[in-house]
From TrEMBL:
Residues 209-303 form the Nucleolar complex-associated protein 3 N-terminal domain. GO terms for biological process: DNA replication initiation. It holds the Pfam family CBF. Belongs to the CBF/MAK21 family. GO terms for cellular component: nucleolus. It is found in: Nucleus, Nucleolus. It comes from Podarcis lilfordi. PANTHER family: NUCLEOLAR COMPLEX PROTEIN 3, NUCLEOLAR COMPLEX PROTEIN 3 HOMOLOG. Residues 75-88 have a biased composition (Acidic residues). One of its GO terms (molecular function) is chromatin binding. It comes from the Eukaryota. This is Nucleolar complex protein 3 homolog. Residues 1-21, 40-51 have a biased composition (Basic residues).
Amino acid sequence: MKPRKSKKRVPSFRKLLKTSKIKLDNKLKNKQFKQQSTAKKYRKEQRKLRQAVKDAVSKKPMPLEDNKKKHPEREEEEEEALPLDMMDEDDMKLMEELAQRASFITRDLSSNEPVHAKKRKNESVIEKYEKKPRRMQTEPEKELIHLLPIKDKRGIIPQTMEKPVKEEEEEEEKDEIEEMEEAQALDEPLPVLTAEELLVHRKKKLQEKKMHIAALASAILSDPENNIKKLKELRAMLMEQDPNVAVIVRKLVMISLMELFKDITPSYKIRPLTEKEKNTKVRKETQKLREFEEGIVSQYKFYLENLEQSVKDWKQRKLKKSNVISLKAYKGLAEIAVKCLCELLVALPHFNFHNNIIVLIVPLMNDASKQISEMCCGAVKTLFKQDKLGYASLGVVKVISGLVKSRNYDVRPEVLMTLIHLRIKEVEVKKDAEDITPKKRFMSYQEKRKNLSRMQRKWKKAEEKLERELLEAEASESTEKKLKLHTETLNIVFLTYFRILKKAQKSPLLPAVLEGLAKFAHLINLEFFDDLLLVLHSLMVSGVLSHRESLHCILSAFQILSGQGDVLNIDPLKFYTHLYKILLKLHAGATNEDVAIVLQCLDVMLTKRRKQVSQQRALAFIKRLSTVALHLLPDSCIGILATNRTLMHTFPKTDLLLDNESQGSGLYLPELDEPEYCNAQNTALWELHTLRRHYHPVVQKFAAHLVAGAPAEGSESLGHEFSRRLPTELFEAYSMKGMTFNPRVASVAPRKKGKFSQEASFLNEDLNELFKVYFGSAVSSFGKCR
């Protein structure tokens, strides 16, 4: 019997129905891969053959004459040893065939070496190629497309059709033509251009790049899900190699990608899919969304890596192999990269890789470049102000604490000053307000059954369910979670502050630490109060602190005592004495800005602690503040007089300072630094009469008001614009930072009385301007004197 031939059966229709779509796709992919591999092998062999032919043509055989010239004697001996007459016809034919080969002609026949010595070394490229085993070129398998079957009497007949295969010869020819054109273009010398032509060419090329960037960005913005692959194309332009436009193009691409990511990123963090989720079948829309999320996360990651590399290149100051960008251009690229990172830090605190951005930005806050340091510090401050939940703030505070410790407290003060902008105090106030407001109460089952009908109960149940869902949707993070985050953040902040107070008291970070303690002191745990007050007092007594630092020390101490410290029985007399002593150091020069801190200290020390303050202490402070007001700028003077007004209302018996005829025991001692024993009750506020003639109208008004006893009604009373504002608010409202007069002085119209009067009016205007520059004001009384 003949053996049965194994023919490949055509799959039946039922089998095709059972076969899954994934298997069919895999089979189709395998066939395509085999076809591509066979085509690649065939092309590789053709290239090798072409190369071998070129090498064979380039190599020429050595002429016979050279060998004859070298050994003429041997040639005669060979001719004598081999007479041609004695050779047969077959030998002659063999000799003629061998003579046609270069190896036979050039070989020395008299040498004793074997004929095939060093054969492998002298083999030509063609012989090597000929010896290699070859495969017959097999035609690629033709793909079959399964069509709808035909039903006949015999049964179901499956129908197939050959899928047309694209010929790859055309593609090879195109590749060869392109290679030839590139080679010709490289061989041709570049045309020499003038400077103007180079500028025009650069401008044209830059415009083309800008248009390309704009087209890609607009396409991504119009349809991010379908055009997510264009992000990769745009990101590839970060590696621009044209030295004429490389720097500008890279900067433009950095900023464009930053704005794109701010617009198209979702408002949630994208997590990686699990294996189970990847294997489960989902709808097309879900699959499309997953592909978009994976694409945007990967491109965002690569973009951040590019920005980080730009900063590292500038830090290391190393040129790349391509030398496309100079060392000077690295700084500009690094500044743009840092700016993009700062924008992303603030705009996308919820998105992936936010902690990575924090790790990049925080060390740059301490950078030697002032511009980069200010940029990073400003971004962190904005993040602290906007962060309502506390996750991002906690991450930044952790990295700042680690940076300060690793640098051994050798960092810029601005790094610690950013911690003052944390929103912890605001959230705590908001939490208390939420606790006070009454919560929504729903009816119990018994109340419903008693007061409502069956239909009404049904409607009420649906309504309450909807209200609960709305309340859950509107509710933010739970207060317990917020409190936990803020507690952890504050613990790290205080740990950093206490380390500096203990180990680096002479550090330039001390003012920032004291200012931070002054803001968050009311949140410190009671266990640390005694030790902290001792440290602050020892710092004040040591004399190493500046005027501003001493004020921050005093403010920190009283902030501690005003919060949870109310329960402690501590009399901070030493801090009162120190403030009373340093008040005389205030003047219209550099310390004028410190008046804002003085006003805060006076509010915490005297107004809010009115029950613990004696009358003698209040009288001494009012007298000294009136003395200090004589040599301050108008804004500080207004703040001091507003504080005196508050103290006179808080301590009504201090009006005896307005009476010249009152007598007491002892003599007023203005040089004494102890407010309790200076006998302030034996003096009067004569300074107010001097301030009534002040050039500033608001100072005049406050001085007249205080001389009249600070009445709430009457002609000498203040209006609502002054009486309802705090001293610190008035100080800010009439600030003299711009050296401008507030309110503005009305200009006096010159009289027309001839040439002399005109010259006098011009002189008046010039003097007025000089007074504005040097004294921050215009003299309104100058016109009266004229």
